[in-house]
Amino acid sequence: MRKDESMIKHISIREATPRDIPAVVDFYMRLDNPGQREWIEIMMDGRHPYVDASNLLLAEDEETNRIAACVIYMPWTYSYGGILCITSRAAICATCLRYCSRRRRATCSP
């Protein structure tokens, strides 16, 4: 069994909740930008006009209870000729390097 195959057994995917705010803030501050605390808190605690904690998808290591990866989905609604188009885009996607497979390591965040 390859190293990355054994890690998959211990990863669970779930929606974030407001209880995850401290862990998600710590995760993004370490991997992406130390100045994101307030922005992440606003998006998760209900102050953002169209994003809340349920828009974050977490990959969590069940052995360490730490976040392995996280992505924020930003919902958008467009109108074209009176027809509403509801969509979303992935924003601020990050993966802890130790969870990246060797084949994809170059595309993963540290």
Topology (SSEs and partners):
Blueprint: H1 3-8, E1 11-15, H2 21-31, H3 37-44, E2 56-61, E3 66-80, E4 83-95
Antiparallel strand pairs: 1-2, 2-3, 3-4
Describe this structure as you would to a colleague.
The structure is a single chain. The protein has 110 residues and is α+β, with helices and mostly antiparallel strands. The chain has helices at 3-8, 21-31, 37-44; strands at residues 11-15, 56-61, 66-80, 83-95. The protein has three helices and four strands. The protein is globular, with a radius of gyration of 16 Å. It has one domain (3-105): 3-Layer(aba) Sandwich (Aminopeptidase). The two termini are 24 Å apart. The chain has a four-stranded antiparallel β-sheet. Helix content is 23%, strand content 35%. Residues 103-110 have low confidence and may be disordered. Helix 2 (21-31) runs antiparallel to helix 3 (37-44).
Question: Which properties best describe this structure?
Answer:
alpha+beta; four-stranded antiparallel beta sheet; 3 helices; 23% helix; globular; disordered C terminus
Q: How many domains make up the coordinates?
A: 1
Strand order of the largest sheet: 1-2-3-4
Helical proportion? 10-25%
CATH hierarchy class name? Alpha Beta
* Quaternary structure: single chain
According to CATH, the fold-level topology is Aminopeptidase
Distance between the termini: 24 Å
Q: Which of globular, elongated, flat, extended, rod-shaped describes the shape?
A: globular
The tally of strands reads 4
Unreliable segments (pLDDT under 50, ≥5 consecutive)? 103-110
Order of helices and strands: HEHHEEE
CATH superfamily: Gcn5-related N-acetyltransferase (GNAT)
Question: Do you know the CATH architecture?
Answer: 3-Layer(aba) Sandwich
Radius of gyration: 16 Å
Helix/strand structural class: alpha+beta
Major sheet characteristics: 4 strands, antiparallel
Q: Strand fraction band?
A: 35-45%
Mean pLDDT: 83
> Count of DSSP helices?
3
